[in-house]
Amino acid sequence: MPSQADLAARNKALDLIKSSMKSLVEQINEGEKPVLVIPKRTLSNTIYDLRRKMLLLGPEVQHRSFTDVNEAKKFMQTLLMASIIFDALRNNEYPTIRDLYYRGKHSISYRTVDGKRINENTWEEQRESDSVIRDLEVFLSVLREDLLILSKEKGKVVGNLVIRSGDDTIDLSKMGHGAYAIEPTPDLIEFVDVDAEYILVVEKDAVFQQLHRYGFWRKYKAILVTSAGQPDRATRRFVRRLSDEYKLPVYILADSDPYGFYIYSVFKAGSITLSYESERLATPSAKFIGVMMTDIFGDSVFRKIVKDKDSRKILEEITPGVSELKPKSPYLDESERSNFIIKAKTKDLERAVELVGYKVAEVCIEDKEVKNKVKKKEGLTGYPWFSTPEWTREICIFFNTLSKLEIEAMASKGLKFLADKYIPEKLSVGDWID
Amino acid sequence: MSELREVYRAVSPAEFFYKYREIAGFANPVRAVYQTIRELVENALDATDVHGIPPDVKITVRKADETQDFYQITVEDNGIGIPPNIVPNAFGKVLFSSKYVLRQSRGMYGLGVKMVVLYAQLTTGRPVEIITSKSGYKRIYYFKLRIDVNKNEPVVIEAGSWRKTRDWHGTIVSVTIEGDWNRAKSRVLEYLYRTAVVLPYANIVMVTPENEIVYYPRIVNIMPKPPVETKPHPQGTDLEFMNSLVKNTDFKTIEELLVKSFQSIGDVTAKQILQTAGIDPNKKPSELSDNELLSLINAMKTYDKYKPPSSRALSPLGEEIIKAGLKRAFNPEYVDAVSRRPGAYSGHPFIVEVGIAYGGNTPIGEDKPVVLRYANKIPLLYDEATDVISEVVKEDINWENYMISFPAPLLILVHICSTKIPFKGVGKESIADIPEIRREIKLGIMEVTRGLKQFLSKKIKEEEAKRKAEAVAKYIPEVAKSLAVILADESNLNALRKEIISKLTTIVARKTGVSFDLLHGIVKSIEAEA
After folding, report:
1. How far is CA A56 from CA A68, A131, A331, B400, B425, in A?
2. Does B396 score more than 80 pLDDT?
3. Chain A contact for B525, CB < 8 A?
4. Which of A108-117, A128-137, B404-413 has the lowest mean pLDDT?
5. Which of A8, A143, B266, B392 has the most CB atoms in a 10 Å sphere around its CB?
């Protein structure tokens, strides 16, 4: 028997689908071609809202008309998907996107105008059915979780937090060595009681487990969350809700490399490909606590670069104030650095250029050969949400040292160092990037 | 070096042809069968449609000897018939007819049939048999005759007549020749088939030695306008003709001769021509010297204020007849024909007609259209490569400009009719490259092909519309079902689904301009499968 919250969500979703399809049938009844007006999910229609600090879908819409030859199949697929989801909602089911792919996949056998019989599949690959699920999300302006579609669970949480999920009440401080797996429908979770001062999101599952066993969350009154890599929707939504509803600050601890920086930005601003989710999933107040390049190298490398008048001028133009940032000393000494850092690969460099733009790379990379490698990214100006003096400094140091570092390295220096010095100290002095 | 003495002696025309039969198309036993049938069929057609009679032609080929390759070939027509007193000379005396009037016909001088008689005589020794009667005669006449080659005289072996019981008119000619029917058969059938294409107003039947019947029934009741006999045009004259004219005339003066014997010459023109030639208009025609005759011809040819030659002597097929013939032969998707306006070259009038067939059973042209060539309603089967029609098709027309890409089921029919077809060589199978004619062929082909282009582009548009409609219609049942699942209860699901299917089909039909029934067919084909 589904929980009350579950049933309520189902009825809401059923009504939503029904009313949207009703207007389509009304068009047909009036002899008009049926048209779905769907917000565009293209990169060009993805905008960064500077005020709300998140990636949002722009105002552009596409008119998916059934009588348009190029749109007819997508139109059919969209409606087919709507009917499958509708059917699953009505039957109290929880399909995954893979399930939906299989449920809708069948062949349409028709005779052409030339009399040939042709079999055509409603869709071939899951890519196609996934795409119409996204279309339906933006068309209905709901998230798939609201339609009771499940995704694989990846995120975990522990802390002084009591929740109600389904008809059960769960105390997340009593999970032993394990943790609560964040359910795919975080909106059905009810927060019963929270006793914490902030949320710490750790990119790496291994570091999460170490901090958990160490008792970090209990000692520092934190809710400890891991996304285990690229965060899924449920983890993002969970963090967002918890942060919203209890006004808890969110700190992200990720690898010190462009990939880690990007994961932070997904939590904070949303992802570029799925910008329509940001409004519900992004946590614009999330702060990047580490690991920073300046935690590894300090700021001496950067100061050397901005000593050069031309370089300083260029960097100041990109992010004013970059040469007057507070000085920083490293957490690692010379020998630790040489032990822990990893050489950056071309892919890391390219990703870094995408974050802050080519000009920063041009100024900060010393090695000519390396510079040539990123030359093809010339023209990129970086993402607006990375356009801050702090990020320019961080990534400039990355370009200059061509080094990256995993969080595990900080734990290697000593779990005690990570849990009792690195994190608390940075939190107390406010050494984060907003 | 010894002095050679050559003996010259007069040879009768009959003897000449007897010795040089290759020229007339009797080079070998295969060609002989084909040529015999052709000559007799063309005479039969000249006796009918030239005189406004819808032709009924029956050809019978029969094995005439058990051991030898002798075949009796009989051709019967419903033509005007031949007066009995003319029959012996018409079939048994080789002569150049001194025709001073012109009109379009298939055979020009009636020479062909005499060659047939001679060839039969040479190979089987059997005489020609003729049965004939004209309309209004009370009797039917019968002749059996041969040719005395040395004397160039007919020898009547048997002659007779009997009373007509019905108003039959026409001619039946029967000859027995030695020939290779088996190898000639396909060629003969091709000839008949091509003849039938331009003669949809004729009944043509052939009975083969294997007792097969090939039948092309009459399918139209219209006939080409018969040609009208006209006087020659002065620009088309030559020394041979003028010589014969001045020697045999009864006119008193050369001026009168010119005015009365030629079209486009009146008193004023005649005087001008004679002045240019330096000849006294009152001179007696027979008294003209050779030099005077030459300068007269020169003056006649260079004078440039004539009216063009009259086309009344011509008998074009007409657009309807060509279209009907092509339709029967190929059941094409698109057919059209055009008769060009009359033109002239060197004083001879001509008309070019072009037909076009596309699709259906039209044969596939690999890199250019299939071409059917006709001269004065006779199909030209051989020497296609050197013919001006083939050259125009290959060189003068850019087919891509007409949305045609080969291979394509495209056929071009070209008919040239003239009082003098400019054949290349003696084979009479290919037409020479005369600029005036080439131009008309080109314009004619362009004219009919433009129509085809419009047809094709319309067809492509329609096909495109159909494809587009199909690309949408095939999803109608799925869309309707999805909407019904969401909006209907279990009880009325099917009713709503059907209602949406019908409404969507109407909407798609209206949007694409494709018929409801066609789209409904696609939708139903899906329903049937489901």
Report:
1. 28, 18, 37, 53, 86
2. yes
3. yes
4. A108-117
5. B392
Helical (H) or strand (E) element with B162:
strand B153-163
DSSP string across B357-417 = EESTTPPPBSSS-EEEEEETTEEE-S-GGGSHHHHIIIII--GGGGT--SSB-EEEEEEEE
Interchain contact B506–A (C-beta under 8 A): yes
Residue B221 CA to residue B200 CA, distance in Å, equals: 9
* Encoded tokens for A231: 């965060």
Contact B521 A32 (CB under 8 A): no
Chain A touched by B475 (CB under 8 Å) = yes
How far apart CA B385 and CA B391 sit, in angstroms, is: 7
- Please answer yes or no on whether B526 and A87 come within 8 Å at the CB atom: no
Q: Which residues pair with A96 in a beta bridge?
A: A150
Are A72 and A120 spatial neighbours (Cβ–Cβ below 8 Å)? no
Looking at the predicted structure, is the pLDDT value of residue B364 above 90? yes
Mean pLDDT of B506-522: 89
Which one-letter amino acid corresponds to residue B283?
K
pLDDT one-digit tens code per residue, A209-246: 999 999 999 999 999 999 988 888 889 999 999 999 99
C-alpha A90/C-alpha B356 separation (Å) is 65
Which of B460, B468, B479 best tests the A interface by mutation, with the highest count of A CBs <10 A?
Answer: B479
Distance CA A400, CA A268 (A): 26
Q: Is B492 on the interface with A (CB under 8 A)?
A: no
User: Cα-flanking dihedrals φ and ψ of residue A108, to 5°?
Assistant: -100, 120
pLDDT score for B14: 67
pLDDT for B306: 86
Whose tokens are 């060197």? That residue is B346
Q: Which residue of A has its CA nearest to B512?
A: A67
| Subunit contact A110:B526, Cβ cutoff 8 A | yes
pLDDT of residue B108: 53
Q: How far apart are CA B403 and CA B406, in angstroms?
A: 10
| Residue B453: per-residue pLDDT | 94
C-alpha to C-alpha distance for B221 and B392, rounded to whole angstroms: 33
Q: What b/e string do you get for A232-265 counting C-beta neighbours within 10 Å, with b at 16 or more? A: bbbbbbbbbbbbeebebebbbbbbbbbbbbbbbb
Nearest to B526 among A33, A108, A113 (CB): A108
pLDDT band at residue B98 using 50, 70 and 90 as cut-offs = very low
Q: What is the ipTM of this complex?
A: 0.73
Average pLDDT over residues A2-10: 83
Catalytic residue among A48, A94, A101, A102: A102
Higher pLDDT, A44 or B378: B378
Of B466, B500, B529, the CB nearest to A113: B466
The answer to whether residue A180 is catalytic is no
Cβ contact A66–B481 (<8 Å): no
Res A140: pLDDT? 92
Helix or strand (DSSP H, E) at A253: strand A250-253
Alpha helices in B199-253 (DSSP H): 239-248
